Amino acid sequence: MSRGRMLVMLLVTMAIAFGSLGSSLAVGWTPKLGLDLQGGFAVTLKAPEGADAEVLEVAVEIMRRRIENLGSVQEPEISVQGSDRILVQLPGVQDRQRALEAVGTTGILSFRPVIDRNFISPAFTDGTLEPPEELQPDDTTTTTGTPDEVSGSTTTTVDGATTTGAPDDSTTTTGVTTTTTGVTTTTTGATTTTTGATTTTAAPGDSTTTTAAPGDSTTTTTTVPAPPPENIDPDTGITIEDSPDLEAAYLAAEDGFIYKVGPAFLTGADITGADAGFIGGSLGGGSGWVVDPTFTGPGGDKFRDATALLSTYSTADPRRSMAIVVDGVVNSAPQVADDVAAGEGLEPDEVFITIGSSENAQAEAEDLATILRYGALPTVFERERVESVSATLGDDSLRAGLIAGIGGLALVALALVLYYRVLGLVAVVGLAVFGSLLLLMITLLSRYQGTTLTLAGVTGVIVSVGITSDSYIVFFERIKEEHRRGKALRPSVDTGFKRAFHTIITADTVTFAGSILLWLLAIGPVKGFAVTLGVATVVDVLVAYFYTRPAVTLLVRTGFGEGGAISMRGAMGRDRHSVTEATA
Amino acid sequence: MSVLGTLYRGETGYDFVGRRRTFFVISGVLIAISIISLATRKLDGSVDFTGGTIVEAPNEAGVTIGEVRSALSAIGEGGARVQLVGDNDDLILVQTRALSVQHQDELVSAVAAIAGASVDDTNVDAVGPTFGAEITRRAVEALVIFLGVVALFITWRFEWKMAMAAMAALFHDLLITAGFYSVVGFEVTPSTVIAVLTILGYSLYDTVVVFDKIIENARELANKQTYGEIANLSMNQVLMRSINTSLTTLLPIGSLLFVGSYALGADTLREFALALFVGVAAGTYSSIFIATPLLTLWKEREPQWRRMERRAERRVPELLEQAAVASPARQDVAVEPRSPAASGAVPRPPRQRKKRR
After folding, report:
1. What is the pLDDT of residue B344?
2. Are A491 and A72 in contact (CB under 8 A)?
């Protein structure tokens, strides 16, 4: 790369780093501080009658999940207080009303028909769910997918453009089993127009999007309106909000499946409670842990109708299952037992959900019973108090942290300059570039994702600046080593960078992979940490490539390369280079 | 020529591999202490993990958080979470770990006294954990998967024995940090968890940098030196980098520790910094003194490297002679008389550098 381009790259990088941080500070964007540093507001919620300690735990988890969904990392603190209260503390949330709604209502419980079930394909991890290859839709069918698992039951229509039909409560025994015939029978233009509603799906075409499908034939125009696109996560195709009247695609809590489910048969209001218990072998199904739900009168009737419908499917068909959905997550999807004859509904008094007799069965049964009891709660928690709360640590801690951090970093700068001379200076400016970019990223994340900086986060940033200096040290030591082996300074810089960058990439990949995983899997404060770590890692690599390399490459060609005590050659170890020069 | 001078130029010939027994013993003792302490004393979770007591008192006297906290420090509850509630700070909220009945009464009267309120107006209730079982469970799950993926990555990028050695070093660091917490009796807070995760990342990063060097040297010197020599050479080459990096990492942490120890109300900061300090120090130590010697111990048994070793043994006297003649600059280099083959100080023969890829 020519000298001119190097110089441009260097200047552009520095301009971006300092300029954008400067302008973001100028318009008053600063990172949002966490509950411990800045305070926020506190809500005390009183649980409705009938909530026991376990149900409150479920409520806490659901509230946490919802708050994280508002903006991915808000780090709320939620705890159960006494026997029937929940104390929620939130850092300075922008949309207080939405936050209050998120914590003030219970999640909706619904029993829904399973339309289809897909294991999360590897594609899920990179954000897109592609339909299986052999079912790739052609141009006319791009907006809707076809289920990859087409059951052999009564095929009634030819409708390549739409997905399986949605079972409808009113048509309990007929017309539910609409299936597609796949791509081989491509639809006509007429089909596409009559099913216009289905083409509005915004999600990548796949079998798990919630396309509203006509009940049966292609001529029907009374389609359920498709949910608005913003209701669907564009990356995963998973429905975000839980609305019992609409078809939806939800992720299962445990087994890694995505369930496509129809409108609810019945909701939490239709049940009054549930218990877990152990039964002996009297029911013919062996002994094991079961959950015994109790229904309201109308709820029992709905359940009987629902199971009568489900039992028409074969036992190998996922549609024989009923998904229990809580707040947008499929908690479990028990299947109607195989000894229930087709079309026969289960009597609500005799319903057991069999969990099994494995080691975890007791815990699973108890969890499910708790979920059902939770779902049976009235949907509103009483708000006892909403107040602002102060920080737990306060200004003095933040100030102490910042003073310590700045002092520490000044020492780092001093050490680098003393040791590496002019190269150390490059590193110090580089750390400033890194710090600016990191702060900028955190500011942006805090603005658009609700990320908050806690004291742990602030110190994390300071420490990461220290760790980042490693990239420079690896590079500089590398240059020294190449030089000692007898290379002249300039080629030492070039090879040194190539090798050092290789090392940096490898080491940073490990850290980055870790931060992505933590971000995906962890919740609460750990998630916040993962964001800071991941951002720092990416910025580290970028700075090494776009700042350090041009800076050092240019430096070696100036007067700082060769002469004087502060020069690069000075930093190489003086009494040795006469020897290397001779052998070179 | 001074020791510093040789360090500066990366020419040290310290025999890391040959002294591995010493390092293993040191680490073994530290780990044993940690495990014993963890088993007997357990870790002391803060109110965020265990739940405890919440006390609410009307703030009649209009005190600040700092004042409440110093009043609490007097009865040994300086680690409590203190908040003021309401737009005019009209309520004091104190959360502590579960206390004995007697101590709880003491706490209530202390809070009431500083608030200028009567004990009757002060509410006491139990409070559950905020960093609940669910967060912990998810964090542990994430961690296990994380370690699995990292092990796979190192296996793919380097080799599986290195992955195992890196994991061993990681557990070494985690155990020692946890053990330190248990011995000192610090409260484990959510900040501590974050500190431990930082250490984990650092420890892995540091080990990968060292292994990267070994891989590179092994590729170049596979037919010339034993694995022990290559490992030694690599570590001597990266020694300066390791020292510098731990210095630049420990400087800001040390500064946090220092300021945290003297600044008021910065208890959290101090404990966080101390955990980081111990962890990062252990992380640097383990990459050089544990991960690599472990790896060498294992790799040396591979037939390919065994052959190399036998060949080296035959070659040693001749090489030593060469070293004395050709490189007077290396007079201070430590050559172990008992096992010269294990030293990294064997002079490198002049060679054409291969272009990599």
Report:
1. 44
2. no
